[in-house]
Amino acid sequence: MFLPDVIGGVNSVISNVVSFNAELPPFKVVAYSNTTDKREQISNSPFAKNITRISINPRNNLYFTLRKLNKAVTEPTDCIVATDSLELSMVDVLRLPNKLVFMVLGDFQHYYTNAVNYDGIIDKYIAISKEIFEKLVQLLPHRKRDITLAYFPTPPVSQKKYERRTDALHVIYAARLDEQKNVLLLPQIDEELKNRGINVEWTIVGDGPLRSDLEAVVKSKTNFALTGFLGNKSLHEAYLHHDIFITTSLAEGLPVSVVEAMKTGLVPVVSDISGGLRELINNQQNGFLCQSNNEIAFADALEKLYHNREMKKTMSVNAREFANATFDPIINSNKYWQLFAEAAKSEKVKIYNNSKLLLFDKSWLPNSFVRNYRDLKGNLRFLLFKRTA
């Protein structure tokens, strides 16, 4: 199983897939990290004993990088589970005979582009939501039998008790602090609610490039707490002290964090966007779907929950029951391993796409030469920018 070596949704899905099956076959997780990516790496994982870490410099010759990744694939009979383009390119460029599963983990164009471009070498596709499944079938109608909808497993969590400790509504956000997650909408929602006389206590869990911007906006507010990144145990404990889970993303797949919050009994208030959120939320039954990037819509939903405790309680029960039934850890984990086993027996004949490598990514160019050239080119660009600035 290949995945980026960073804390996030991909890591959570793979961790849960390997955690809830009592009879796991031999497996290995290959976690690759970009030397320029400073995000927190995977730690305390259930697959810690089975992990191989590979560090990648983006200025390396890509062919060299793919060969480096391929060293983790010990046998031509190994079934490869891919989550992104690097390992797909590895199989294609190196013309590996291995059976290949592609897990499509988000409603993002690059996933669909990869699904189409590497059609010839992929034995089975796993879609984590109905919407992703339907888009894949539309793009690849001739592969419909090889595309499967499989909701990922999520662990059981402690159930939130019903008590309102103060007059305030307690709202938690847990995601990366970046533009795609639209975290700067939260202070705008708070201002709208403040104008309506509604008190909200906000807990912001996560880190990212917009953290300093968010801190600057909320520095005068006493109702915002920024915790930074929290491990799963600490995050689940934090859920128990909140009423609402909010997601303001502009684009999403099917967020593990939302499912886990629903299992706890938090009422989700989320963006009405494609991907998987619409499959989780039955609007005004087990949560709210709000017009994306609209602070008024989010404020309206929170206001209803603030004034109507019975609605909040009913939605909490509905959210928990739906999430527990749909994302059962054992049933869903077993399904994933069944799909991996089916792919391993695939009789599909591979048709390699012969991925085009850039001039400086060719097999015959020494990596040391390519890296030095790109380092020099990067330094020259930096100096030129600094001089013109």
Summarize the structure in short:
It contains 14 helices and 13 strands.
Write up what this structure looks like.
With 389 residues, this protein is α/β, with parallel strands linked by helices. It folds into 2 domains: 2-153 and 331-378, 3-Layer(aba) Sandwich (Rossmann fold); 169-321, Glycogen Phosphorylase B (Rossmann fold). 40% of the residues lie in helices and 15% in strands. The protein has helices at 9-19, 62-70, 85-93, 109-117, 130-139, 185-195, 211-218, 232-239, 256-264, 277-280, 295-307, 309-326, 329-344, 367-388; strands spanning 2-4, 29-34, 51-56, 80-82, 100-104, 124-127, 147-149, 169-174, 200-205, 224-228, 244-247, 267-271, 288-290. Strand 11, helix 9 (256-264) and strand 12 form a beta-alpha-beta unit. Helix 1 packs across helix 13 (329-344), helix 6 packs across helix 11 and helix 9 packs across helix 12.
Strand residue content: 15-25%
Give the termini distance in whole angstroms. Answer: 45 Å
SSE string, helices as H and strands as E: EHEEHEHEHEHEEHEHEHEHEHEHHHH
* CATH superfamily membership of the largest domain: Glycogen Phosphorylase B
Structural class, please?
A: alpha/beta
The helicity comes to 40-55%
Most strands sheet: 6 strands, parallel
**What overall geometry do the principal axes of the alpha carbons give?**
globular
* The top level CATH class name of the largest domain: Alpha Beta
Q: Enumerate how many helices there are, as a single number.
A: 14
Low-confidence stretches: none
CATH architecture of the largest domain: 3-Layer(aba) Sandwich
Oligomer status: single chain
Report the mean per-residue pLDDT as an integer. Answer: 90
Number of domains: 2
